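Table S2 (continued). Query chain:
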Amino acid sequence: MCISTFYRVGTLGNDNFQEFANYFRALALKKKIDKHILIGDMNLNYVSWPEGDTTCALQSSFLDFLMGDLGHAQLITNPTHKAGNVLDLLFTNVPSIINNIKILDRNEACLFRPLWHYHEDKSQC
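Corresponding output:
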């Protein structure tokens, strides 16, 4: 089993996606991973969950790679951002081993508030 974390800066474009895809392809080939969990702040703010629909080509590329090429499902459906977006995501190719997901209130999650979710949203598609 491999557990990975990832932070995607919302203003980065296709080069960032290519680096991401190349890294995970190489990891999958090198380690022969059969079970994978990927969690992180993906900043895919133009995606509608749980459907995974988007009109943004770049964000669609991320979803096509993760859900199509890697066969992952995305399990977070409730908002994780104060504006109501689902930005913090959990992708896995073994969803049956994950249950009882609870999205905590921003004051419950930790003793400090992560600043990156409380600034003015300047992300781009």
